[in-house]
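Extended Data, panel c. Modelled sequence:
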Amino acid sequence: MTLVLQKLVSSLDADEECAEILLQAWYLGNGALAGTCSAVLRALHLIEELGPALGLHVNLAKCEMFSRRGNTSFPPEVRCSLLPNLYIIGAPIGYTVKILLLGSSE
């Protein structure tokens, strides 16, 4: 699985429109991308385009998009939540966490 994902990650890294992807985190068949909406949307399109040849298929019903403003350019099957309601595997991520972690030093 790792070698297959490496081919996909390399394709994303090589694409100029994905240059604003700030984070890629992959584990087995799951991935998380962070960046501008346009870069993440481009990456999603590339994954949908290149994935099947590698045996990877996106299940849009299991995808989530987190944004400060919301975004209607993602497929309607993708669940959209506004920040700071971001939890990954039960761990809160986002502005609220930053305040809690950095509050004593600011």
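The chain has three helices and six strands. This feature is highlighted in the accompanying rendering.
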